[in-house]
Amino acid sequence: MPIKISDSLPARAVLEQEHIFVMTEYRALHQDIRPLKICILNLMPTKIVTETQLLRCLANTPLQIEVDLLQTKSHVSTHTPEDHLLSFYQTFDDVKDRFYDGMIITGAPVEHLAFEEVEYWEELCRIMEWTKTNVQSVFHICWAAQAALYYHYGVKKYPLAKKLSGIFTHQMRTPKSRLFRGFDDTFLAPHSRHTEVRAEDIEKIEALKIMSVSDEAGVHIVCDQDGRQFFVTGHSEYDAETIRLEYERDLQKGLNPDIPKHYFPDDDPTKAPKNMWRSHAHLLYTNWLNYFVYQTTPYDIEASHAPTFSKTEHAE
């Protein structure tokens, strides 16, 4: 089954060229099926790139998905054309009375700031509080994972001596979890961040469980006990070229970045990187959608007034 997107969304052409099954709004209206309603709060400055990456991962499933794109009202992106934002994005005020089966909150390039200093922090807090009653399961990425751990559980973030950038090997701490169905014993995932959360802080919180870690990159995936919240510090959705583009951007800014680890062949930036994490990225999103969204969400989410959860479908 396809992912339902707006007829004119730029991601449509990219995904169709990759033979990913997408469905336009017109065609979807003629099908008698209740699609999963997914909201993406896109905090990244390059919104078109990020939305395409996420839609690519969400489309690799037999479920039909209807996506709403959300931006903050208190900060408007200057790196995305205004007509694109007006055509395809809504704000929290537009959706606050709706219910969603799932939600993704992306990372953002604001790690150098304390959470309370971020321009849209108060708005983000209202959204994160709203997810407790209006969203079945939330998937937080990178900075959003750190922000949500801080907001919901008081987990601190710590600055790294150098930017963590590259492709890293991870191990599962909860290999029997449905989130890891089909995973290899070890798997690769990209990281690109200046801060970290620490295992010793998370392990003090009974409501949280560390699901996967990396010897080099540290904590990777954390979840709550019911599978309602996932906190992912990496970027499995990244394309092969994403880290290269970030590295070149940092070079142009005179930041003197280290060469991303385990990314360029022979650590040579003149050689094209290869995507070695794509299969696990698709599995990660497919398993989240299937086991923690589709199999736990009520059929009529609006009539239910608030999400209900099956204790048998928790993170284990």
Automatic annotation (TrEMBL):
Substrate binds at K163, S192, R249. InterPro entries: Class_I_gatase-like (IPR029062), HST_MetA (IPR005697), MetA_family (IPR033752). It comes from the Bacteria. The active site is at C142 (acyl-thioester intermediate), H235 (proton acceptor), E237. SUPFAM superfamilies: Class I glutamine amidotransferase-like. GO terms for cellular component: cytoplasm. The record marks S192 as: Important for substrate specificity. It is found in: Cytoplasm. Keywords: Acyltransferase, Amino-acid biosynthesis, Cytoplasm, Methionine biosynthesis, Transferase. Its EC number is 2.3.1.31. The keyword Lipid biosynthesis does not apply. Pathway: Amino-acid biosynthesis; L-methionine biosynthesis via de novo pathway; O-acetyl-L-homoserine from L-homoserine: step 1/1. One of its GO terms (molecular function) is homoserine O-succinyltransferase activity. It catalyses: L-homoserine + acetyl-CoA = O-acetyl-L-homoserine + CoA. Transfers an acetyl group from acetyl-CoA to L-homoserine, forming acetyl-L-homoserine. Belongs to the MetA family. PANTHER family: HOMOSERINE O-SUCCINYLTRANSFERASE (PTHR20919:SF0). NCBIfam families: metA (TIGR01001). This is Homoserine O-acetyltransferase. The lineage of its organism: Bacteria, Bacillati, Bacillota, Clostridia, Eubacteriales.
